[in-house]
Amino acid sequence: MPHITPDAEITLKKIVESWMDGLIEEKLVGFICPEGHIMAAGVVAIARPSGGLLISLARGTLYLWNPSDNTEALKTFIAAHLSLQQQAWLESVDLTAKIDEKACKITSPVLLIDSTNIWGDLKILESEKLSEHLGYHSLVADHSERNLTDGIAAQRLLAASNALSLLAFFPRAAHPPVAQSCC
Question: Rounded mean pLDDT of 21-40?
């Protein structure tokens, strides 16, 4: 956030205090599209259904989110953590919140998913995104007549390096140690 208003600062403080007091837990972030539920790698939410803070682990940035947020800034923030295929799916999604008449509440296409092992789940999401990017690289290497723009190539390289950086912090998160027999 380049500039934080006094109101936003108060909101951020309340969110972080609630999180530190154990009243809010970290959640994975994603969105709903016709292809299913797509989760964003490298993003954690400290939020309630009424709104909260999206934290980019990959870029070190924050986004103050609420369910009625359907701005291009939100799409850009989420897209920065997606593979190219997922970005295409996000482009087709309207992030406008809808009213769920049966539940009498506002629902957002932005998903906040509980996780029992958030670091392991983030590691898996980064691995999946990295696999897709490496698949694109392999495809391009096999078909050198296809030209990529510098921007796409740079984005793939950045995504791969972000994935490797995140994975380096949590080498055993997705795979707990296995008990060994002594005899």
Answer: 85
Q: Tell me the pairing of strands 110-113 and 36-48.
A: unpaired
163/140 Cα distance (integer angstroms): 20
Q: What is the mean pLDDT of residues 164-170?
A: 57
**Percentage helix, strand, coil for the chain under 3-state DSSP, each rounded to 5:** 40, 25, 35
Query: In angstroms, what is the C-alpha Rg of the chain?
Result: 18
Count of alpha carbons within 13 angstroms of residue 35, beta-carbon side? 13
SS3 label, residue 16: helix
Q: Between 93 and 162, where is the model more confident?
A: 93
Cβ contact 93:32 at 8 Å: yes
Task: Inform me whether the pLDDT recorded for 116 exceeds 70.
Answer: yes
Which residue, among 131, 129, 119, 130, has the nearest Cα to 172 in the 3D structure? 119
